[in-house]
């Protein structure tokens, strides 16, 4: 059975980004994302995929789009037209990640077994994309690791790992 983990960085008000860009730069969070997702399939919406300068190395990208003519000429990219189709492509894997954006997180949450959330300690009122509210009736915090502001990080942040309380 595949473990599905949603992974995101979201502000205190659940802001994810604006105009298909992140609202912060956290190098340690990028390193953690790379460490956790490398070698696994990553499920994302088309806009999230298009926010990357190029496909991320050592990961199979499963891109969800309604556009039946959408194509990506890269061997590590698969195009599907629903979350259900994306989940079928990972059913033989031990672990796969849902990496965004906001609508894909909403659709994916009922299928997820865990959430790896980097909580950015700030609020961004100008955001146009948000992470879903985490329901503590469904999710239990299992780990947390705080990182203070430093010369490379303008915002403090905390890595939070949530696990589903009961079976899906």
UniProtKB/TrEMBL annotation:
EC number: 1.5.1.3
Residue span, DHFR domain: 3-164
Reactions mediated catalytically: (6S)-5,6,7,8-tetrahydrofolate + NADP(+) = 7,8-dihydrofolate + NADPH + H(+)
Pathway: Cofactor biosynthesis; tetrahydrofolate biosynthesis; 5,6,7,8-tetrahydrofolate from 7,8-dihydrofolate: step 1/1
Pfam families given in the database record: DHFR_1
One CC-aspect GO term: cytosol
Enzyme type, top EC level: oxidoreductase
Keywords, comma-separated and alphabetical: NADP, One-carbon metabolism, Oxidoreductase
GO molecular function terms attached to this record: dihydrofolate reductase activity; NADP+ binding
Domain of life: Bacteria
Function: Key enzyme in folate metabolism. Catalyzes an essential reaction for de novo glycine and purine synthesis, and for DNA precursor synthesis.
Family: Belongs to the dihydrofolate reductase family.
Official protein name in the record: Dihydrofolate reductase
